[in-house]
C-alpha cells in the first residue's frame, strides 16, 4: 500500500485536466454490447485501486483511534477532485460509495459497515478529525451528489451535513455549486437520481434530519384547543428566551449570506414561519 499512498499524494497535485488519464481505454471489440464506461472493469482499473485504498485507510482509522486523520484526507481529496473533473470517474465512485438507497434507510446513515455509513460517521466526529477530514468527507459526498444539496442531505442526513452547508453559506438553499475555488464540475445535465422500489415505499417515512425511517409519533397537541396551543407555544418561547439570556444555549438563524449567525432576539426564530390563517385567506381569495 505504500506505493499507492505515494501515488495518491502525487495525484492530488496534478491539474484537474489530467485525471481523465486514470481511465483505461475501453475494448469495444470484446463485446457486441459495450458497457457504459463507468461500469467497465477494464476502464476503471485504476479507480478500483483508489477505492481499495480508501477502504484500507478507513480500516486503519478504525483499528487505531489515535491515528492522524491527515492520513485519510489525501485519498478523500483525490476522489472528490477527480470526480468533479470527470463525469465517468464521478459515476463510478457514486455507484460504489453512494449506491441507490433501499431498505438501508431504516437505519441511520452513519450506522453500518458500507462505505457510505463509514464516511457519514465521520461527518460529526470530534478530536483528531478537526484537521480537515470532516470537510474532506463532506465535500466528497457533495461532489458525488453533483453538488445538489437535497441529494447530499438524502444520503447523509441533514443533521450530519448541516455543518458543511453552514460553512459554505448554503443554508438558504441558494446556489447548487460554487464550493471552493475550483471550476464547476463536469456533471451531466440529464443525469437523474433514480430510486429503488424499496426506497419509494419508505420515502415518505424518512426523517430528513436523521436520514432514516422514524416510527410514527403521536401529536402532543392533539385534542388541545387553539387557546391551549397558543399558551404552550408562548411557554416554549419564554423558556428558550430564558436559556438564551442565561447563556446556556445560543439559538441561530440563517443570515443573508446563507450562514448561521446567533439570533439577537427569540422572535427572530419565528419571524419567517408562515401564518396559516393568512395563507388560508389567500387561498380562499384565489
Automatic annotation (TrEMBL):
Belongs to the synembryn family. Keywords: Chaperone, Cytoplasm, Guanine-nucleotide releasing factor. Signal peptide: none annotated. Residues 175-203 are annotated as: Disordered. InterPro entries: Chaperone_Ric-8_A/B (IPR008376), Gua_nucleotide_exch_fac_Ric8 (IPR019318). GO terms for cellular component: cell cortex. Coiled coil: none annotated. This is Synembryn-A. The keyword Amino-acid biosynthesis does not apply.
Amino acid at each position: 500500500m505504500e506505493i499507492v499512498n505515494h501515488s495518491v499524494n502525487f495525484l492530488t497535485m496534478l491539474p484537474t485536466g489530467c485525471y481523465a488519464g486514470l481511465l483505461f481505454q475501453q475494448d469495444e471489440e470484446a463485446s457486441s454490447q459495450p458497457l457504459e464506461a463507468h461500469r467497465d472493469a477494464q476502464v476503471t482499473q485504476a479507480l478500483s485501486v483508489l477505492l481499495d485504498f480508501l477502504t484500507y485507510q478507513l480500516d486503519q482509522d478504525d483499528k487505531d483511534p489515535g491515528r492522524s486523520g491527515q492520513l485519510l484526507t489525501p485519498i478523500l481529496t483525490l476522489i472528490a477532485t477527480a470526480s468533479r473533473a470527470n463525469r465517468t470517474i464521478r459515476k463510478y465512485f457514486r455507484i460504489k460509495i453512494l449506491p441507490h438507497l433501499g431498505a438501508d434507510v431504516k437505519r441511520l446513515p452513519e450506522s453500518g459497515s458500507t462505505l457510505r455509513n463509514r464516511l457519514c460517521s465521520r461527518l460529526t466526529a470530534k478530536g483528531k478529525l478537526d484537521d480537515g477530514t470532516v470537510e474532506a468527507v463532506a465535500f466528497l459526498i457533495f461532489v458525488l451528489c453533483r453538488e445538489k444539496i437535497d441529494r447530499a442531505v438524502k444520503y447523509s442526513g441533514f443533521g450530519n451535513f448541516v455543518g458543511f452547508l453552514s460553512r459554505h453559506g448554503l443554508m438558504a438553499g441558494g446556489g447548487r455549486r460554487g464550493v471552493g475555488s475550483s471550476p464547476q464540475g463536469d456533471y451531466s445535465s440529464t443525469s437523474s437520481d433514480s430510486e429503488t422500489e424499496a426506497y419509494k415505499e419508505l420515502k415518505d417515512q424518512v426523517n430528513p434530519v436523521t436520514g432514516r425511517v422514524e416510527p410514527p409519533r403521536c401529536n402532543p397537541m392533539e385534542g388541545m384547543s387553539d387557546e391551549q396551543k397558543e399558551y404552550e407555544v408562548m411557554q416554549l418561547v419564554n423558556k428558550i428566551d430564558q436559556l438564551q439570556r442565561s447563556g446556556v444555549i445560543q439559538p441561530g438563524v440563517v443570515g443573508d449570506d446563507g450562514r448561521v449567525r446567533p439570533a439577537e432576539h427569540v422572535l427572530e426564530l419565528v419571524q419567517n414561519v408562515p401564518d396559516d390563517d393568512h395563507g388560508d385567506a389567500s387561498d380562499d381569495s384565489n
